[in-house]
Amino acid sequence: MRWYPIIRPDSLRSSAARRTEVTLAELYRQTVEAFAAAGLETPQDDARHLVSGVLGLSLTEMVTEGARVIDDEEMAAVAEAVARRKNREPVYRILGAREFYGLDFLLSPDTLEPRPDTEILVEQCLPFLKRRITEAGRASFVDLGTGTGAIAITLLSQCREAEGVATDISEGALETARGNALINGVADRLRLRQGSWFDAITGRFDMIVSNPPYIVSDEIAALQPEVRDFDPRAALDGGESGLDAYRAIAAGAEDHLAEGGIVALEIGAEQKAAVTAVFVAAGFKLLVAEKDLGNNDRVLIFVRSG
Q1: 157 bridge partner residues
Q2: How far is Cα of residue 96 from the mean position of the Cα atoms in its chain?
Q3: Which secondary structure element, helix H or strand E, spans residue 78, and what is its range?
Q4: Apex 216 CA angle, 214 and 221, nearest 5
Q5: Could you read off the pLDDT of 70-93 as tens digits, one per residue?
Q6: 12, 101, 257, 294 — which has fewest CB within 10 A?
Q7: Is the pLDDT at 15 greater than 50, yes or no?
Q8: Per-residue H/E/C for 145-173
Q9: Whole domain around residue 192: which residue ranges?
Q10: Residue 66 sits in a domain of what CATH number?
Q11: d(CA 94, CA 81)
Q12: % helix / strand / coil in the chain, to the nearest 5?
């Protein structure tokens, strides 16, 4: 995926004049040193992705074009991006977009970054959707708390006979999701609704899917600055126990699932037992439990009991 420069501060251009020539390789080295000195955990990776993104280079070009001389405008753009990252702003928020499941997604202050762990949720949903399409010729789902739309848009991109509805309480998040649906060519099969959980939903679906907020309220202050200071709190805060969203989804799922439908959820690493208990109490049984790449519990899929 190729990123294009998004930062061009006029105020910094003149200050970079008459400087010593700097090559791409040297700029990368300086950026790594700056990030290491700032105490960032992955200075090499951060430098590679940030510099390549600001300059519109592929990661391969970061290696093959190491002798390229960086001009004043590029230096100024990278300098501002580096300053933002040293302030713990995440790399992809600085760049304004992130890749998820091979697709590009714009970010906004109203959305979480789609992260690799959530790709596991998508992977667990796809076989069910495809089987449903084989059996019935079509499939439908609702994505609750869609944010960037990453889950819904990816499912639609992989299943052309599927249709989706995506909800969020944030108008800004829905605008971001709308843009991402257009970019990825699925806007004609995705309806967006503003509301909390099932408030904006009517009808029944083959699948209910969600990556809801699940952080315990009192634990948010201790999160890494990249999350605590830049992710929207509404997308993080799961209430006093971290289970508020799961209780709301479990309470409404029965009225919105088609016969044989499933509820697919991302969970926190230590929430498998608690979330399962919430859904069992609401008349569901656990069908699938999947771990993430770090061997933490990450995805649960439920069906109605009986």
Answers
A1: none
A2: 12
A3: helix 72-86
A4: 115
A5: 999 999 999 999 999 999 999 999
A6: 294
A7: no
A8: CCCCCHHHHHHHHHCCCEEEEEEECCHHH
A9: 109-304
A10: 1.10.8.10
A11: 7
A12: 45, 20, 35
